[in-house]
């Protein structure tokens, strides 16, 4: 707590002294938590008179289109010059919801070239240590909740407007799987209560995010589970894969496979679930587990050059889908043997 307070003082130091040009950057394949946190933090900083620009490496899924302020986010892949300019001209840079700078893709280089102070706001395990100031809390469910705590400490929660409450809640809701995963503390629920006081409408946000799918997305889910799911290790591990061709058949749109990887975990006995999504350059690997036994952050780091959280992590594979699956199978066998899972 003492440490947190002294960091808050340091943060005040960075923000004092008149209007500043601020850039807020978040990770590739931005999710509800990344965007929700960035937008809410941007509004907070604007409230203190700063000029703020949010940036993401590539496009966000369309189920986040409703978020207030999302139209002003620079997508580096689609407006590279503008993105580089925003980073280069920033006097202060916030990096949110990531634990590896290389998750910023084309924005990594301009970020590293900038001499502006760099502040991390995050909840991943093992954050990088090259920041001027770090608010890294792996025991909190989401970056949105870390952001909430910063707002609370800096200026009190009365400063939270309805759109900010919705954006923060979207981050909390998506990163906890709608309050199904770990880190569901009384403190978090009290924060949600405050967000309601500040104008949050929970069913509205839930519907905007989860009841906004296309028919082809729901059919692709059916196909993935019905035809592509394989269960191995005597029912203790499951995986699915989707090739570009299969996704085209279902008119795949960005974000359509979001959440698929969670379904095999609803099968009794399954301890780890993976999905392999083919893209032009590599296979995107998503991993999920339940409870304390299987740590997919370790698994992703060791076998897929990635990382994340204990129960939700990801990485990349640069070989074919078939070879990726073979690699996964032997990785699971090795990891289970190490943990004594039979
Ligand atoms: P998802 O499976 O939803 O894409 O990612 C789940 C979590 O895994 C993310 O919140 C992120 O923390 C982590 N993650 C996903 N892909 C990567 C990756 O390539 N590298 C790292 N370090 N983490 C990743
Ligand atoms: Mn997050």
Which helices and strands occur, and which strands form pairs?
Layout: H1 2-15, E1 21-26, H2 32-47, E2 51-56, E3 74-75, H3 80-89, E4 92-96, H4 108-113, E5 118-122, E6 133-136, H5 143-155, H6 162-175, H7 186-197, H8 202-210, H9 215-228, E7 230-232, E8 237-242, H10 244-249, E9 272-278, E10 283-289, H11 296-304, E11 307-308, E12 312-317, H12 321-339
Parallel strand pairs: 1-2, 1-4, 2-3, 4-5, 5-6, 8-9
Antiparallel strand pairs: 7-8, 9-10, 10-12, 11-12
Helix pairs in contact: 2-5, 2-6, 5-6, 6-8
Manganese (II) ion is lined by residues 33, 97, 123, 142-143, 175.
Please tell me about this protein's structure.
It contains 12 helices and 12 strands. With 342 residues, the chain is α/β, with parallel strands linked by helices. The protein folds into 2 domains: 2-209, inorganic pyrophosphatase (n-terminal core), CATH 3.90.1640; 215-339, Roll (Diaminopimelate Epimerase, Chain A, domain 1). A 6-stranded parallel sheet has the order 3-2-1-4-5-6, sandwiched between helices. Helix 2 links the parallel strand 1 and strand 2. The radius of gyration is 20 Å and the shape is globular. It binds guanosine-5'-monophosphate (5GP) and manganese (II) ion. Guanosine-5'-monophosphate binds at residues 99-100, 103, 124, 286, 306-309, 312-316.
CATH topology of the largest domain: inorganic pyrophosphatase (n-terminal core)
Order of helices and strands: HEHEEHEHEEHHHHHEEHEEHEEH
Give me the secondary-structure category.
alpha/beta
Shape: globular
Rg on CA atoms, Å: 20 Å
Number of domains: 2
Q: Kindly state the percentage of residues in helix.
A: 40-55%
Mind summarizing the main beta sheet? 6 strands, parallel
Determine and state the CATH class of the largest domain.
Answer: Alpha Beta
Spans where pLDDT lies below 50 across 5 or more residues: none
Give the termini separation.
42 Å
Mean pLDDT: 96
Instruction: Quickly count the helices.
Output: 12
The CATH architecture of the largest domain can be given as Alpha-Beta Complex
Bound small molecules, by name, code or SMILES, are: guanosine-5'-monophosphate, manganese (II) ion
